[in-house]
Amino acid sequence: MKIIEHFVEGKKYSGNSKRTSFIYNPATGEATAKVKLGSTKDLNSAVEVAQQAFLNWSNTPPLQRARVLFRFKELIEKNEDELIKIIVSEHGKVYEDARGSLTRGLEVVEYACGIPQMLKGEFTENVGKNVDSWSLRQPLGVCAGVTPFNFPAMVPMWMFPMAIACGNTFILKPSEKDPSCSIRLAELFKEAGLPNGVFNVVNGDKEVVDAIINNKNISAVSFVGSTPVAKYIYENCAKNEKRVQALGGAKNHCVVMPDCDLDQAVNGLMGAAYGSAGERCMAQSVAVAVGNIGDQLVKNLKTKVENLKVGPGMDKNSEMGPLVTKEHLEKVKNYVDIGVQEGAELVVDGRELKLQGYEKGYYMGGCLFDKVKKNMRIYKEEIFGPVLSVIRAKNYDEALTLVNDHEFGNGVSIFTRDGDVGRSFSSKAKIGMVGINIPIPVPMAFHSFGGWKRSLFGDQHMHGPEGVRFYTKLKTITSRWPTGKRSEAEFTMPTMK
């Protein structure tokens, strides 16, 4: 069976740990590989390598760093199909969805190619008499990223291209469920001309995460995952005086107003709730039906959910693939059980879906709940699966209150034709990312991604201008030079003196 190793100092690295974990193809349930789970010693060894690489990389002119990123971009485009197939084989998302996620990661690389412009400082002449002052941004040192299973390319690429473009070195700990894409990206980055040791991948579980937290030579940590783990990483990194951005869970609402284009809202909800089998931190898992639109909304959704095409990711007819693991499949099904027990109306039940020829795959159909109440667990907790809950609100104000009272504040959308409502919502929603007639309001790479409330621990969002600020530290210099005799004119040929 294939063994997936670490990638340190520009080559594959076996490490010291003997522990491994199985990698499965979610479409078939077949174990396809084993990944080595690193130890504290493995992580610390990678940090030493990254520290040495930082000495030269941090002094490499930003323009030269950008040229490496340009070549990396070209290699990602050249190897697009291979990378997509790796994502599909280990995560299970359908081919086009995997392509889209890779593209959103590539956009961050493209943004990072402009790093010479973004690192320009500010200068003020004569802040005092004959005194000048200027500011500049310098890299932090060794940075680390801990990423989730749901986006094996996109989320790592939210982190390491920006960090490396800013002059840092980087250690990535990808999810142990689907690590192959990260390894392949590291190989392509080396092929692009990135010096050895600048980008390293150490596979592992909690032991490696704790090693990252406790290693005093790691300056900053980026994380995307569940809220409990985000809080754990944030608190413990802070104790160890590290800079940290930790993005947690979500329960994204989609407010459907009575005046909206209902077909647009339904189609948006279908993609946002069931795309990637609901395994997105930006999935719309709650539809807030306002006023009298609820019955028609549920009716239209029911038809589409019942006809949702579920199948393996490489089947071009599939709209939704399997869930990532057997354990996660059972967890999601259990949430559906809980919703029924709590009294919500299960309009569409996808729990018993079986696909001929793929009986061992981790499939379930789309589930749709109606008449959900705000005290139910299926409303309060992140399910991270193909389950959409419809909750009713009497009016706009009640819908806004539901959005703002929830503990998560990652993303939210509203479908309406009323500009006044849209403007009010965009201003008053206590959420980090807002969509107006946009179901998944993920910002482009030149803006920044992040939520509010318990969806983000830390002060700065990911990629875009916020990413540059996170991966650099500000230095301000004030100078005065003594007056002296200015050199006289010379009319002879200048020579080395």
Description:
The protein has 497 residues and is α/β, with parallel strands linked by helices. The chain has 16 helices and 23 strands. The chain has 2 domains: 2-248 and 455-477, Aldehyde Dehydrogenase, Chain A, domain 1 (3-Layer(aba) Sandwich), CATH 3.40.605; 252-436, Aldehyde Dehydrogenase, Chain A, domain 2 (3-Layer(aba) Sandwich), CATH 3.40.309. It has helices at residues 40-57, 62-78, 80-91, 95-112, 115-118, 154-165, 180-191, 206-214, 227-239, 262-274, 294-306, 326-342, 377-380, 396-405, 419-428, 464-470, and strands at 2-4, 6-8, 11-13, 20-25, 30-36, 122-128, 131-139, 142-146, 169-173, 199-201, 218-224, 243-247, 252-256, 284-290, 345-348, 367-370, 387-393, 408-409, 411-415, 433-436, 452-453, 456-457, 472-480. The mean pLDDT is 96.
